[in-house]
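Task 17 of the worksheet. Students: predict the tertiary structure of the chain below and write it out as structure tokens. Keep your answer in the requested format; marks are given for formatting as well as content.
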Amino acid sequence: MEQEENIIVGISIGDLNGIGGEIILKTFEDSRVLDFCTPVIFASAKAMTFIKSHFKSQINFHNINNMSELAHGKVNVVNCWNETVSIEFGKEDTKIGAFAIKSLELATKALKNDAINVLVTAPINKHNIQSEDFKFPGHTDYLAQELEGKSLMFMITDTLRVGLLTDHVPVKDVTTHITSELIEQKIDTVYNSLKKDFKIQRPKIAVLGINPHTGDNGVIGSEDDDVLRPTLHKIKESGKLVYGPYAADSFFGSNNYKNFDAIIASYHDQGLIPFKTLSFGQGVNYTAGLNKVRTSPDHGTAYEIAGKGVADENSFKEAVFSAIKIFRNRMSYQQLTANPLKKSPRKDRR
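Model answer:
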């Protein structure tokens, strides 16, 4: 496998009734992308031919039944099922959800077996994927079970990185989830990711408060004083450059975020609202902390525009290039740290 020159990018098709197929087509219609990677779409020849025809795409697919037939320099499609899929853009359909999971499971298996180097996931519908066999709220939780490590939702651009202490947790339950152990684990994951995945030698991390104004000395909640501050103090003593907690309402508007390599938010909307506002459709959802690289665009199925040919592929394209870059950074880090020079034992001179 020519990892440096030809990164193999596995792509799960996501919800076929959403915009996933369209943004995949638009990304790889630019043949220059094939100079950087070999894409492998986990779907079916019939489904991708239908999508190609609908959008009048000129892309050429190389249809394969297993990874041994993969061709570099082409857009490969792995046949994951033989059934004819009834694609109705913009419609929520549990049958379509089942195909999305089939694609994800086979792509994940290929990732675990090193048949692909990285995984980029097209958007799924979190409701129609649920079944007796699949009871995960999304990609991240499923991959956390299937892969090694402790997962963390890390939203990234070239200049902004936002991690979360809690992700898909109801707001009413956030404070019960945030413990000292969780804070230490998430900060450790972000710290290691910044070093290994982004080549930042001395990461500088900001942490946002749990309550408005970080609790105002207990007037608006005690969690910041009782849990967050003591834990951050302990982490600082270990030598990590970790700062906070900062009041979330003014942190981004004051441009303070530009002073840090990463920001850790306490809960989903606290981090993702400013991230998506500032990233202008270029953001990427990266699952940090796992032994394999997975990215996705920072948006959903967008049923309201599915099939209309107006979907913006930039976030998906950034997800592809981010996965490639992170994979290469990891390979470089492993090579640099695999065989550190050992000092020869000093011989006494007499």
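Marker's comment: Residues 314-338 form the longest helix (25 residues). Confidence is low (pLDDT under 50) at residues 346-350.
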